[in-house]
Design brief:
The strands form 2 sheets. The chain has a 6-stranded antiparallel β-sheet with strand order 6-5-4-9-8-7, sandwiched between helices. It is of the alpha+beta class. Strand 8 and strand 9 form a beta hairpin. It folds into 2 domains: 64 residues, Arc Repressor Mutant, subunit A, CATH 1.10.10.10; 164 residues, GAF domain (Beta-Lactamase). Helix 2 packs across helix 3.
């Protein structure tokens, strides 16, 4: 996928491999040995072992020495806590999410694009009601998922036909046809927000608005989810306006220069 991607001119291979290893250990959801990791990622076993040993030394992975297997380590939890507490976007978005969840009686979330093909939930809030949709911080989804994907596709200023393969790989409860999806992307580009009325999850309406960065592009968004029966007509319009207004307020002033 290529939605407003940034090219890394001189990547540090060892760092990239370390990140790949941690992502792999997180994805398999169980301890894995050196040979399994090296085969899955195409890394020479001796190099893979040296990286794993270094990550284990710093607590980013944890080695079960009896089984000779590795899993993600406890230091990542501290990093996650520190990120939530110190990141400007996450900290500022949380207040917005709390207020909107209460005002509109919906579940709200802030998402950040991870790389080029995934989004990750970095903040959330639930309505103070007996029923709310559950969202987990740290959950990952394909970048083109639902109304969030409409926003990222629109912000990337790409021909939607270029994204056809990625669209075909998405899992929807009620699959829209590609022409309807392109119309939704065009709507998001024209209006600054997007609506998915029950396509991604049946009976659930998802509204999203992009949060823009100072140097262009878009890797972040705020999202609201609620029952489709609840979110229609004036209620949907009010939520969409509020979401867009807050996304605009969270956005950074645009600059064409890159420091």
């Amino acid at each position: 996928m290529n939605i407003a991607t940034q090219n890394l001119r001189k990547p540090v291979v060892a760092v990239q491999r370390a990140v790949q290893i941690m992502r792999f250990l997180g994805s398999v959801q169980r301890p894995a040995g050196v040979n399994e990791v090296s085969r899955a990622l195409g890394i020479v076993p001796s190099t893979c072992q040296h990286i794993l040993k270094t990550l284990d030394h710093d607590g980013l992975v944890s080695e079960d020495r009896a089984a000779k297997k590795y899993q993600l380590g406890p230091t990542l939890l501290r990093f996650a806590r520190d990120m939530v507490g110190s990141n400007d976007f996450v900290r500022n978005a949380q207040g917005v999410l709390d207020r909107m969840a209460g005002t509109h009686q919906v579940t709200t979330a802030a998402v950040w694009r991870e790389g080029t093909d995934r989004i990750i939930v970095v903040a959330k809030a639930h309505a103070p009601a007996n029923f709310s949709l559950h969202v987990n911080i740290g959950s990952r989804f394909p970048a083109l998922t639902s109304a969030i994907g409409h926003c990222f596709a629109a912000a990337g200023h790409l021909d939607p036909d270029y994204l056809r393969t990625d669209f075909d790989e998405l899992q929807w409860q009620n699959q829209p046809d590609f022409e309807a999806w392109k119309d939704d992307v065009a709507f998001a580009r024209a209006n600054g927000y997007a609506v998915d009325a029950g396509y991604y999850i049946g009976g659930i309406t998802v509204v999203a608005a992009p949060v823009h960065e100072a140097v262009g592009g878009c890797t972040r968004a705020v999202v609201a989810l609620g029952l489709s029966e609840q979110l229609k007509g004036p209620a949907l319009d009010a939520l969409a306006r509020d979401l867009k207004s807050n996304a605009d307020a969270l956005s950074e002033p645009y600059s064409e220069s890159v420091v």
